[in-house]
Each structure stands twice: as structure tokens, then as C-alpha cells.
Amino acid sequence: MYEYIRGKITHISPYYIVVEAAGIGYQVAVANPFRHSVDFGKEVLIYVYQAVREDSLTLYGFAGLEEKQLFIKLISVSGIGPKSALAIMAGDDHGGLVNAVESEDFKYLTKFPGVGKKTAQQMILDLKGKLGDLAMSELAVKAMANESQSQNTVLEEALEALVALGYSEREIKRISKELESLEAETTDGYLRHGLKLLMKK
């Protein structure tokens, strides 16, 4: 089992990033690929979780051990797979997630894609009292604007990333006009703002 990969980020898509280490490009699924835009072409250390299934072998990546531990606890819940766990973590509101579980806030939990009332109940049953040991520090990530990209390009990438996280076209269409009204955002900025809007609706 891999613990982490140290290498350069050579590709970023709405679904994953590619980290090149020792001449090999590793495709790594992450909660918010565009959060790593600031590190494109730089050497990074990505903690990974390897999921092996009959028809696939997938690496899931995290900026720190706390994120990885949260992911492992989330996928231990019946009804939550790796994709759903990444979608839950994409907003980086780990404190809000812990509070929702501890206070049994079903309304908050069911706003995540793929999480219905039954899964939310299971999350509370399985995780309540078990997340306090994680150091849920909010990750301070400074996104740098890419001047070569137009607003339309970065907005389209952000909307595609929301689709990759499991949100429906109807949900995304509902917030797209508000996102379009924002000034000179990066892809990461649009994505973060979009996630906040979807959690409020």
C-alpha cells in the first residue's frame, strides 16, 4: 500500500491530477483538482489511498494526513464510496462536516451529492464521536489566476468539476448565473463558490 507520492504535477483535469515521479505519471483522483493549480509544474507531496477492485485500481490523493484519515472514515460508512467521499470533502469545510455529524444535522448532510436521508443517518450512526481526533484545520490555499485563461474557460472547467463530483445538471444550472456574475475568478475560486451555493440551496 502506498503512503504518499512525491513528484511534479504535470496535468490537471476536472476529475484528477497527474503526478510524475521517477518518470512515471500517476493518475490521482482528488476532491478538488483545481486547488492544485498553484502547484502546477512544482514538486509536491500527495498522500494517497489505493483502492483495488476487480475491474480497477485507483489512487485517491490528499494534501495531508488529516484529509486522508477523514476519507478513510467516510468510506467506512455503508452507502458512501470513494467518489461520494471526495464530493463530501470537496468544499474543504471539514469543521462544518464534523459539526453536522455531531449535532445530527440531516439537512446539511443530505445536500452532498449521493447522500440521502438513509445515508446521512448512517453517517451519524457510524461517525458521531469518532471525528474529534482528526485535526480539522481548514487548508489555506492561495489560488493564482492564470492570465492566459479567459473567464469562460475557467468557469466551464469549474462547472465540469461539479459534474465530476456528482451534482446534477439541474442543480448546476440553478447556480450558473450567479457564478457568471463573479469577477475574474480562477477555476478553483468558481468551484469553491459553486460548492458554497449548492450547500445553501
UniProtKB/TrEMBL annotation:
Query: What organism is the protein native to?
Result: Vagococcus allomyrinae
The domain of life is Bacteria
Q: What is its main location?
A: cytoplasm
Where in the cell? Answer: Cytoplasm
Question: Under what name is this protein listed?
Answer: Holliday junction branch migration complex subunit RuvA
Q: Where is this region: Domain II?
A: 64-141
**InterPro entries, A to Z:** DNA_helicase_Holl-junc_RuvA_I, Hlx-hairpin-Hlx_DNA-bd_motif, NA-bd_OB-fold, RuvA, RuvA_2-like, RuvA_C, RuvA_C_sf
Please list the GO biological process terms of this entry.
Answer: DNA recombination; DNA repair
**RNA-binding keyword on record:** no
Q: Which family does it belong to?
A: Belongs to the RuvA family.
Please give the SMART domains that the UniProt record associates with this protein: HhH1
